[in-house]
Design brief:
298 residues; Rossmann fold; 12 helices; 13% strand
Length: 298
């Protein structure tokens, strides 16, 4: 199987439990008392359902925002604490820094987990945030109980230390004329023939209106992050909800020594949580149940 870097793929190519006496409802925290989260002076915007012993922390992908998880936030908040973040540089989070590395984003998620004191965290990361949740898990082994990747880690055999002419040309062109280079590739490689036109339009609009310097820098720096090796060193099973519009190289995952469970989803492009939220939520429920069962093992 021919292997491509993450950017090349895109560019050439986020009642039964009640006893006889129901517990008193928890007191809601007024919005004015919401924790203001920042990492080294950079504001991190987030939504938090506030209740639940297990936390689902949703992390969006490239150039999008926490709003892409709305269907999941609404669906899962009755059973779990659900938190969705805008990564710095995107959405309404701060842009006042110069480091857009995977490690820096891992520190952002660390700040969220620590400042909200999140426990039993399952990290759910879309696209480029597959690497980010791995980094965050490495930084917070005492808090994170599970990882769910969404349409990522498809090319675990790719070596980020090897030169990639196609990627280099993409970055050079994108810096010279962002929209002219990025939008055609995105339109061609991020969607399937069945992707709803409204989903496609929304994604392309968000990509077009992103801060171009941040968008290119975080993608290029993510390309150099050895995500597969880091994931192997973490020694946690990753549950991959991957669309089958492009294949997942499971042989490479096995060769790397990565414990994984592939939960494929059919008939979507790169945004299965938006293109088929019902099916996606079913897959994510399966992953959560597997993580819960394994975390309870002696």
């Amino acid at each position: 199987m021919k292997r491509y870097s993450p950017v090349t793929l895109m560019a050439v190519l986020s009642a039964t439990l009640f006893a006889c006496h129901q517990a008193a409802p928890e007191k809601e925290t007024p919005a004015s008392e919401a924790v203001k989260i920042n990492n080294q002076g950079v504001n991190i915007n987030y939504d938090d359902s506030k209740k639940g012993d297990t936390t689902l922390l949703f992390v969006h992908g490239w150039c999008i925002n926490k709003g892409y998880w709305k269907d999941q936030f609404d669906f899962f908040q009755s059973k779990y604490r659900v938190v969705a973040v805008d990564l710095p540089g995107f959405g309404t989070s701060g842009k006042n820094r110069e480091k857009w590395t995977v490690e820096a984003y891992g520190e952002d998620l660390s700040a969220v987990m620590q400042q909200l004191d999140l426990k039993n965290v399952i990290l759910v990361g879309h696209s480029m945030s597959g690497n980010i949740i791995v980094e965050a898990a490495l930084q917070n082994k005492d808090r994170v109980i599970g990882l769910v990747g969404v349409d990522n880690f498809k090319n675990a055999g790719w070596d980020p230390t090897q030169p990639d002419t196609a990627a280099a040309n993409f970055y050079k062109g994108a810096r010279q004329n962002y929209k002219a280079v990025v939008l055609p590739y995105s339109s061609q490689y991020l969607f399937s023939s069945t992707t709803d036109t409204l989903v496609k339009a929304k994604v392309l609009n968000d990509i077009a209106n992103a801060d171009t310097l941040i968008a290119i820098d975080c993608l290029e720096r993510g390309d150099s992050y050895p995500g597969s090796d880091k994931l192997a060193s973490l020694k946690k099973t990753i549950y991959l909800i991957n669309s089958d519009y492009t294949p997942t190289d499971t042989a490479a995952l096995t060769k790397k020594g990565i414990a994984y469970m592939l939960l494929p989803i059919h008939g979507t492009g790169h945004y299965p949580m938006n293109e088929n939220p019902s099916e996606f939520n079913t897959r994510l429920t399966q992953a959560i149940e597997k993580i819960g069962a394994s975390s309870n093992e002696p």
